[in-house]
Amino acid sequence: MEKTLAIIAISTLAIQTANAATIYNGDDGRVDITGKVQYEAGALKYDKQDKAQRLNFGGDGTARLGTWFRYHLSEDVDLLGKLEWQFNAEDENDAKTDSLDVRYAWLGFSYRDQLEMAIGRTKSPTSQLVDVTDIFELFGSAANGNRINGIKSFESKKDDQLTLGLNYDRWDLRASYVFEDERRPRETESGHRDYQYSFSARYRADMGVDLVTAYERQSFQGTTPLLGDLTSWGVGVGYQHNSLYLGAIGGHKSMQAGNNEEFSSTFYELASAYQLGEFLVMAGYNKEKGEDNLASEGTRVDEYVFGVSYQLMPRAKIYAEYNIDRIKLDNRSRDDLYGIGVELKF
Length: 346
Known about the structure:
By secondary structure, this protein is mainly beta. The protein is built from 2 helices and 19 strands. β11 (228-241) and β12 (244-257) form a beta hairpin.
């Protein structure tokens, strides 16, 4: 979550520089350095062997560092680019091979700050929908982000993605196509993603109301009894009035697997936040209900999330969150999760 109370004050495309340090700003362009250092601790996950039992209290540190630039090619056209890495201080892989990740790596163009195009590892258009209820740091967004047979819908960033954005008047329209090439293998083995495309639209209405909708299609080369093309869609509304924010999204996921098998679910999320001076108080609810033959996974997400954060300074805060998971496994209630964290941006 990279927002304060202005939850869905989203810029076009994948360009987010609200917490950037400008190192060059001239007539020919601008270069910013972005970064974040974060440490979180608590009982944040469930035991892989006993999914009803939470892990012991533990911590994890991460840091991000990147650069964003804009170069004026002409009076109307700008060249844009962003490169950002994430460093994980601790990792489950003892070899530390996964301790450095690329979050963004793209180049693009902007025409009069209204029409934009980018290609590379960019932000997905469906983030406009997810952002409506994405107000937490540790938990939340579990219903829209839950996987169907290992495939995740509404993923925030994708490689090899061509993204287009149009920001005009009250509208923010986005579209993308993901090549998913992995050097474009010619074989058609089941499980190889062929392509993916998505659309989203946001309308800024009067009285602090934002309306959002998103659609996504993932297509695979071949199917199995548990894997096939995945279609996801959702709608959302956000409302902000002074110190109060309310957001809600709902939608549907459907996978057409082999042997005419279909897996599907509906989901919805509710989020609220209220600013009290330097404190931000948050509450949310997430639910996903299956509509297929996976009887053991009828209700897949059913949780309440509560949180509070305190702004130490304009770019630093501390926060605490608590997750009440209502799912039962073998008639056993799942343990509650909880955590605390500190964050500094520059």
